């Protein structure tokens, strides 16, 4: 398995073969978790820089752990996005990292295209850890990995993504990845949170949650941000919970093997009820573990190209 | 001083001329146009069948001086115009200070005296272009402005816009309206549609422009003012203007070369040279606008030349400024993408970039005619060139066409009978 491109920005344009290749690499990474020493020397001598312009403890620790398990040197820089509003500063910061011999720069930024911009301007490989509402490919891959792990091939699987699609990089990356694998994608949420023209991507938009839930293999529940209500995109949390929240009642309409997913952090009692989040159908905690495996796989594929595969064995 | 241009193909929709002519210029005027002129004692240039147009007018240009000289100065902006075959530019008032007072207009006029092309100053509608109180439009008119506009910003308050239209009517000034509902446009950076969704960029709906066009048309109807819609970019916006004109309302509109040639899909590489306001629209919008200019239903093509520094345009789409440098590519872009493909002809270009803007701004322009001021643009249709923003005369080095090969190039620009731009050797020389 090799990646064609220097950077890893999005799942759009990847083939099913490439995606399954990454999932298989992640699978062998996951095996390391069960060892007594959860560490391999694969990326010894390599430097991974986590450049986070937007706070995200979860994604950052996941990348941190992934790099450490591969024995890479890790450096983390967190900066307020406000101090890097100017593109100039963003690039300067990234170049400073590069001077410090970074092999992979993991970047999270609130502006769409920020990761691509750095990738175009840096020698180091750039790994997108979320660029505004545009893309979050590692999150999408861990979602896909989780489904694949539990249910097998994605072709023909019906996946529902529910919630704030308009502002969600997770949704967008999931859509491109799942489409490449031949899955059927349904979207549901308040009409104000469904972005214009999304159907053109080849997905189906549902107005009614109960309709949307019928026969799905997995439901991916997105976090709802309270500021959307302040901006008038929906009237109240109460109404949201009632119309779009996944509760026990709605869970009953799912097939028994269907998966309940959430990229976290959850607003328990809003988009998802606790007894659903903690139910047997929920794979939310496994998603977190799979996230580390996926990120190990990508760091390896980007930084370890010349490293022999046997190093993993 | 005499100059004889031989064997040019004149383009002038309103003066009937033979297919090929010689043009004799003495001092600053055209003194003779005939199929064959023999004249001693004069500099002779053989045009070898290239096009001769009356010097073009761009009624929407941001010269940035005073206040933002790092983006552009009156001198450099006028040099860019000369290189683009444009001999008259209307200067937008969103400078610093805003051109809302006669002193600033006088300053612009003084600086423009040494510039290569004519600068027509425009004044703001409201003090500081803040949309609240009317600027001293009467004084502005006396100091020579040919129109008023808060361009860069809309006049959000409908009552203020109504009063501006009423008040400026006796001065016979057009109200040039930047139509954008700021609440609808919000923090948007590109056209709302499939591509904004795909790219995750904050969207600007077409309706943000259309509701303001509809409002301004209603107000123009109410007040009898002359309304000119700046940088019209949507199909429905055009339909509104068309319907208003059919109903006898005094409204004209302009469209830019980039809105006629590019679409929102062109933002897919996150190239900040595609970030403009109004944003690049859908294919349907673009095609409707092309048809509208082709059918003679839109009045003007203007560049909305909006130069910025390198720092302001680098980085992500969100962080970059809106606006591109348009003067130096306009004519070649129009030729390459529209004229060559039969979507426009040369006579229409002269209507859109000469007669109509002159009429709207009340400039006295008579085209290629004996006695006219000798402002001329010589354009070679068969010569290609590659756009290289590093070579721009403008300080603004951002163009969506950078690196593209365009067919057709400005060979010579003549202002007041003098060659001010000479590109015969491919060097693009400016001559003061
Ligand atoms: Zn403008």
TrEMBL record, chain A:
- Give the pathway annotation: Pyrimidine metabolism; UMP biosynthesis via de novo pathway; (S)-dihydroorotate from bicarbonate: step 2/3
- Superkingdom, natural source: Bacteria
Q: Which UniProt keywords apply?
A: Pyrimidine biosynthesis, Transferase
Q: Name one Pfam family in it.
A: OTCace
Concerning SUPFAM superfamilies, the annotation shows: Aspartate/ornithine carbamoyltransferase
Q: What's a GO cellular component annotated to this UniProt protein?
A: cytosol
- Name the family: Belongs to the aspartate/ornithine carbamoyltransferase superfamily. ATCase family.
Q: Which protein is depicted?
A: Aspartate carbamoyltransferase
Species whose genome carries this gene = Halonatronomonas betaini
Encoding gene (name):
pyrB
UniProtKB/TrEMBL annotation, chain B:
Molecular function in Gene Ontology: allantoinase activity; dihydroorotase activity; zinc ion binding
Q: In which pathway does it act?
A: Pyrimidine metabolism; UMP biosynthesis via de novo pathway; (S)-dihydroorotate from bicarbonate: step 3/3
List the Pfam families hit by this protein, alphabetically: DHOase
Q: Which reaction(s) are listed as its catalytic activity?
A: (S)-dihydroorotate + H2O = N-carbamoyl-L-aspartate + H(+)
Supply the InterPro entries for this chain: DHOase, DHOase/Allantoinase_Hydrolase, DHOase_cat, Dihydroorotase_CS, Metal-dep_hydrolase_composite, Metal_Hydrolase
Which parts of the sequence bind substrate? Answer: 62-64, 94, 277, 308, 322-323
GO:BP terms for this protein?
Answer: 'de novo' UMP biosynthetic process; purine nucleobase catabolic process
Q: What class of enzyme is it?
A: hydrolase
Q: Which residues bind Zn(2+) 1?
A: 60, 62, 151, 304
Q: Which residues bind Zn(2+) 2?
A: 151, 178, 231
Q: What does this protein do?
A: Catalyzes the reversible cyclization of carbamoyl aspartate to dihydroorotate.
HAMAP family documented for this protein = PyrC_classI_B
**To which protein family does this belong?**
Belongs to the metallo-dependent hydrolases superfamily. DHOase family. Class I DHOase subfamily.
Record-given protein name: Dihydroorotase
Q: Which gene encodes it?
A: pyrC
């Amino acid at each position: 398995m090799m990646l064609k491109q220097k950077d890893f920005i999005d799942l759009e344009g990847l083939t099913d073969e490439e995606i399954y290749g990454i999932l298989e690499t992640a699978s062998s990474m996951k095996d390391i978790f069960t060892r007594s020493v959860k560490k391999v020397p694969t990326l010894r001598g390599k430097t991974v820089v986590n450049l986070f312009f937007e706070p995200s403890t979860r994604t950052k620790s996941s990348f941190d752990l992934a790099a450490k398990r591969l024995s890479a040197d890790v450096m983390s820089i967190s900066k307020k996005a406000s101090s890097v509003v100017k593109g100039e500063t963003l690039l300067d910061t990234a170049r400073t990292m590069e001077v410090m011999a970074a092999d992979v720069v993991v970047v999270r930024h609130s502006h769409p295209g920020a990761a691509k911009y750095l990738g175009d301007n840096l020698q180091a490989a750039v790994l997108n850890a979320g660029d505004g509402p545009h893309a979050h490919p590692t999150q999408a891959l861990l979602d896909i990995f989780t489904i694949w792990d539990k249910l097998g091939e994605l072709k023909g699987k019906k996946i529902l993504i529910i919630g704030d699609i308009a502002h969600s990089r997770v949704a967008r990356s999931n859509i491109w990845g799942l489409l490449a694998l031949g899955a059927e994608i349904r979207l549901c949420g308040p009409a104000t949170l469904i972005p214009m023209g999304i159907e053109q991507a080849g997905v189906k938009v549902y107005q009614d949650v109960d309709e949307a839930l019928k026969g799905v293999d997995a439901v991916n529940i997105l976090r709802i941000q309270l500021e959307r209500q302040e901006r008038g995109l929906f009237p109240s949390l109460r109404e949201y919970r009632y119309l779009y929240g996944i509760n026990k009642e709605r869970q009953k309409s799912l097939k028994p093997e269907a998966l309940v997913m959430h990229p976290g952090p959850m607003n328990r009692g809003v988009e998802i009820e606790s007894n659903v989040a903690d139910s047997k159908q929920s794979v939310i905690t496994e998603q977190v573990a799979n996230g580390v495996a996926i990120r190990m796989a990508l760091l390896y594929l980007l930084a370890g190209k010349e490293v022999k595969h046997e190093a993993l064995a | 001083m005499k100059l004889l241009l031989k064997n040019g193909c004149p383009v002038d929709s309103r003066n009937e001329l033979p297919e090929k002519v010689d043009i004799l210029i003495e001092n600053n005027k055209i003194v003779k146009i005939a199929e064959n002129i023999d004249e001693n004692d004069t500099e002779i240039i053989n045009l070898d069948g290239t096009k001769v147009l009356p010097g073009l007018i761009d009624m929407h240009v941001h010269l940035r001086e005073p206040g933002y000289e790092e983006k552009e100065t009156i001198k450099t902006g006028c040099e860019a115009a000369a290189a683009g075959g444009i001999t008259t530019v209307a200067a937008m008032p969103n400078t610093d200070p805003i051109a809302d007072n006669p002193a600033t207009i006088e300053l612009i006029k003084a600086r423009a005296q040494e510039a290569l092309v004519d600068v027509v100053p425009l004044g703001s509608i409201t003090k500081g272009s803040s949309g609240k109180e009317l600027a001293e439009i009467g004084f502005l008119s006396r100091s020579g402005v040919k129109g008023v506009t808060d361009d860069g910003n809309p006049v959000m308050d409908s009552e203020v816009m109504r009063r501006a239209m009423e008040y400026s009517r006796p001065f016979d000034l057009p109200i040039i309206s930047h139509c954008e509902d700021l609440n609808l446009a919000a923090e948007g950076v590109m056209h709302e549609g499939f591509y904004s969704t795909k790219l995750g960029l904050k969207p600007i709906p077409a309706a943000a422009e259309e509701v303001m066009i509809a409002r301004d048309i209603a107000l123009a109807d109410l007040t009898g003012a002359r309304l000119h819609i700046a940088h019209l970019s949507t199909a429905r916006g055009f339909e509104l203007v068309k319907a208003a004109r059919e109903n006898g309302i005094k409204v004209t509109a302009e469209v830019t070369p980039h809105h006629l040639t590019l679409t929102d899909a062109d933002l897919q590489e996150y190239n900040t040279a595609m970030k403009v306001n109004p944003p690049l629209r859908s294919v349907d919008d673009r095609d409707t606008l092309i048809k509208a200019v082709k059918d003679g239903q839109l009045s003007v093509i203007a560049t909305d030349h909006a130069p910025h520094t390198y720092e302001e345009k680098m980085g992500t789409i969100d962080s970059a400024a809106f606006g591109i440098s348009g003067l130096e590519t306009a004519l070649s872009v129009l030729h390459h993408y529209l004229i060559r493909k039969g979507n426009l002809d040369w006579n229409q270009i002269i209507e859109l970039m000469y007669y109509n803007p002159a009429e709207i701004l009340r400039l006295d322009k008579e085209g290629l005619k004996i006695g006219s001021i000798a402002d001329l643009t010589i354009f070679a249709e068969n010569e290609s060139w590659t756009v290289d923003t590093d070579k721009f005369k403008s300080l603004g080095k951002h163009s969506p066409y950078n690196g593209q090969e365009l067919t057709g190039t400005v060979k010579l620009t003549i202002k007041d009978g003098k060659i001010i731009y000479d590109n015969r050797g491919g060097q693009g020389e400016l001559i003061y």
